[in-house]
Amino acid sequence: MGPHIVVLAKMVPDPEGPPSSFEVKTAEKRVVARGIPPVINPFDENALEAAIRIKERLGGTITLLSAGKNLSRAVILKAVASGADASVLLEDDSLDQALLDSRKTAALLAAALRTLDPFDLVLCGRQASDTNAGVVGLGVAELLGLPAVTLAQRVEVSDGKVVVERVLSDGYEVVECPLPALVTVSGEIGDLRYPSLQAIRAAKELPQRVLRPDDLGVDLPPSWVETVSLEPPRRERRCRLVEADSPAEAGEKLALLLREERVI
Amino acid sequence: MGGANGKVAVIAEMEEVGRPSRITLELLGLGRRLASPRGEVWAVVLGSGVKEACGELASRGADRVFYLDHPSLSPYNPEAWTRVLKPFLRERGEGVVLAGHTPLGQDLLPRLAFSLEAGVVTDCVGVRADEEGLLFTKPVYGGNALAGVRVTTPLALATVRSRVGEALPPTHTGEEPVPLPLDPPGETRVLVRERHRLEAAECPLEEARVVVSGGRGMGGEEGFEVLRELARTLGGAVGASRPPVDSGWAPTTCQVGITGKVVAPDLYIAVAISGSSQHLSGMADSGKIVAVNRDPEAYIFQVSDYGVVGDWREVLPAFLTKVRELVSE
Question: Which of B1, B4, B99, B178 has the most crowded CB, counting CB atoms within 10 A?
Fold first, then answer.
C-alpha cells in the first residue's frame, strides 16, 4: 500500500501581485491585500506537487490540510483537484494571521495532524510568502517528534524512508530519514500542475472535513514573538543616470564611472 | 525581553576547513555592536577540524570561543547539532543567538527554538539594541512590508542576512578556546549521505561579490550568454529575476528574489529587470546597484545607484569591452 502524505497548505494573498495591491496599515500593524485573489502559498504548491509525484510512483493517498479564516473553497478545490484525495480545513475567525505566531500555528497544525488517519509523510513549503519565516514546518515536526528535513528539491519515498535532495548554496546534499517524517519543500522541485476541468469537477465529490480549534482540545501556547511595527520598505536610492549621445557611449561611460567610483 | 542583557552567541559556519565564512565574521561584528559595552560575545563552532578556526573567531570579535571538534558534526547534521547546542544554550538561558540566514541557519534555529521554547526570528535585515531589548526587522509579504519584531522569551534566536553586520578587522587574540563537553553523539534519525557541489561557474550566487542579473527584457537564452561573459569578466555570478526562469532561459538555481536566492553582493547589475517587490527583496541590500533598462520609468531605477536608460543589446557590448579594458589594467 502506498504512503499517506499530508500536505500543509497555507492560503496567502498572491505574492506575485503588484506592490500597489499590498496596503501596509502601519497603525494596525497589518497588511491588507487589495484586488488580488488568495492563492495557496507557492512553496506549499511545490510540496503538493512533490506529493503527487510520489503518489504517481507508489500510489497511496494525499490529504491537504489548511488552517485559517475564511478559506476560499475555490482555491482549496483547485489544489485538491491537482491530485489530492481529501481535504481537512481547520477554520475559525480566531485563526487570523495577525493573531497567530509560528508557535501557535505549529501547535494547531500538530494537533490537527494528530486527528488524521496515520500518515507516513508530512510535506509543506519551505516558508510562507506572507510571513516569510520558515519556522512552522520544523515546529510541527518538533511537536510531533518527527524527524525533519528542510529545503527539498527532490523527495523520494522507498523502503520505509524518505530520501531528500536538500538545496545548499553551492549545490545540494542527499539526506534521508525513516518515516514518518516531515519535509519542507523548495521551489526547485517544480511548479504544481494545473488540474483539468474534469478533475476539478470530480474533486467536488472528494471528502472534505472542517474542524474548529475547539475540536482539537489544544491549549494554545503564548506567542513568543511580537510584531511591534509594520512599514512599507524603504529601498529608494539616488540614481545617477549616465547621459550620452548613443547607448554604446552610455555603456562605455558607465564602465568609466564605475571605475572612477571604485565600484569595479 | 529576548537579548536585552548584551549576551550574544554566534553560531559559526565554515567556508572551508578551518576558515569561518563571511557571514560568520559579519555576525561577530554585529554581536559586538549589540553586546557593547558590558555584554559578551561568544562564538560556537561545531564540526570537524574546527579548532583551527577558533583563533580567527577570537580575533574578529568573539570574547570566548566554544568548539566541538568531532566527525559526527561534519557535514551539518541537524539532530547531532541540536543535541550539542540545546543543553549549552539552555544553560545560557538568555541573550540572543545569531546565525546566518543560510541553509544551515534556517534549518537549525527553528529546531532549537521549539526544543528550547524560545522565540525565533528568521531572515533579519536588521537587529538593533534599544532600551526595550533587541528589535529585529525582517521583510514580510514578499518584501512589500518590513516588520519590526521583538522576542518575548529570555532567550532569542535570529537568522540574519548577509551585510547586516560588518566584519571587524583582526585585532587581539582572545582567551583560549573552550571545548564543549562531548556527549556520545549517538545515532541520528536524519543521515546526510552525500554532497554535490555545482561547478563554481554555474551559480555561487550568495557568496559572489558581483552579481549580473537579467530579466524579462533579455528576450531569450542568448541574452544570458552576454551576462555570463560580463560576470566572468568581473569575477561574479549570473542571476535572474523570475520571468526568465519561468521561461526556461535561466536555471531555477539562478533566481534572485524572496522566493529564490537572497543576495547582497558588493555590486549588483540588473539588466532588463523592471524591479518587482519579489525581486527587490532578494537584492536590495547589495552594496551598489546598477540598472540598465529600456524603460526610463522602470521602478528599478528608483532603487539603483547608477543607471543607463537604453536597450541592453546596444549598451552592454560597449560596457563589456570597456570593463574588460579597465579590469585588465
Answer: B99
Q: Which alpha helices (DSSP H) does chain A contain, by range?
A: 42-58, 73-81, 102-114, 136-144, 197-203, 247-260
Best B104, B128, B144 member to test A by mutation, with max A CBs in 10 Å, is B144
The residue out of B179, B196, B224 marking a domain boundary is B179
Tell whether B76 and B161 lie within a shared domain.
yes
CATH number at residue B116: 3.40.50.620
Provide the residue range defining the domain that includes B152.
7-179
* Each residue's pLDDT expressed in tens, for chain A with a length of 264 residues: 899 999 999 999 998 888 888 999 999 999 999 999 999 999 999 999 999 999 999 999 999 999 999 999 999 999 999 999 999 999 999 998 878 899 999 999 999 999 999 999 999 999 999 999 999 999 999 999 999 999 999 999 999 999 999 999 878 999 999 999 999 999 889 999 999 999 999 999 999 999 999 999 888 999 999 999 999 988 899 999 999 999 999 999 999 999 999 999
Instruction: Sort out which chain A residues have CB atoms less than 8 A from B259's CB and list them.
Output: 15, 42-43, 129, 187
Q: Please, what are the domains in chain A? A: 4-216 (3.40.50.620), 235-264 (no CATH)
Q: Indicate whether B254 and B149 sit together in one domain.
A: no
Residues of B in contact with A49 (CB under 8 A): none
Instruction: Give ipTM to 2 decimals.
Output: 0.93
| Owner of C-alpha cell 535532495 | A165
Are B147 and A227 in contact (CB < 8 Å)? yes
Domain-located, residue B216: yes
Q: Which of A149, A171, A257 sits opposite B198 (nearest CB)?
A: A171
- Give domain status of residue B184, yes or no: no
**Which residue of A28, A146, A170 is the best one to mutate when testing the B interface, meaning the one whose CB has the most B CBs within 10 A?**
A170
The answer on B154 and B27 residing in a single domain is yes
**Chain A residues inside the 8 Å CB shell of B94:** none
**For residue A242, which phi and psi values (nearest 5 degrees)?**
-85, 120
